Amino acid sequence: MSGLRxxxxxxxxxxxxxxxxxxxxxxxxxxxxxxxxxxxxxxxxKDAKRLGVPAVYFTKGQVxxxxxxxxxxxxxxxxxxxxxxxxxxxxxxxxxxxxxxxVRARSSHVTNSPVVEYMxxxxxxxxxxxxxxxEIILALQAKALLxxxxxxxxxxxxxxxxxxxxxxxxxxxxxxxxxGDPDLPVGxxxxxxxxxxxxxxxxxxxxxxxxxxxxxxSCWGMDGKWEYMIPDTEKKIILNEVNRxxxxxxxxxxxxxxxxxxxxxxxxxxxxxxxxxxxxxFIFLPAKKAA
Length: 291
Hints:
It is built from eight helices and 14 strands. The protein has 291 residues and is an alpha/beta fold. The strands form four sheets. It has a seven-stranded mixed beta sheet with strand order 1-8-7-6-3-4-5, with helices on both faces.
């Protein structure tokens, strides 16, 4: 089935230099304040107050600018031609749609332009704890996969990398079942990442927008609802609704117990950008009890 990978495109030379591409590929770090203006710092503090979160790592404007940069790199390196962008639902919906919209807009004048498809996956079940084996709720359409020269997974945030790696394994197996070819190239695009995972199986075909620290971040995903009753109160919150921002990437007030140890250093690094340095202001979810 090697003939499936012959591209028939009118390729436009990149307007970015190799140095520009490498610079734009480098993820933006949450703890790099070297180019942060006083106005941007004030914006982060104002946004944190408005959103009711302990701190904002990146403003909506920063996220929008970075998404445009990623789309420029994608076009300049011609990675989009003949590609299926597989947005991982639910979490990757908002970032994935904005990112792929910009990539497709840059590619609208060429043949074999990219296709956007969706995979609905779940590693959380009814709790915020990853399942050992990911559930595939919605697979890629066979008719689209048959025309693919490669598949690029698109998600909101990377943690330990299990979701990306299991999705890659599933897509390659699905392609092999359809075509007999076991070697479908699979890339990865993440809005943000915690820097904990090893994505070596994706080779160099990985792009990351932002690095954030290990504690739970509030991003722009659309994960399902999960209700939690705050201890010793009658107040019930829906975690994934209160912690999804309108474009900002923020530090979540709700944290897994295992992230408690990270928070003092994170808050200390943020300095006065953090509205609180008191761990009593966070809601810590107890570790899942063994069955």
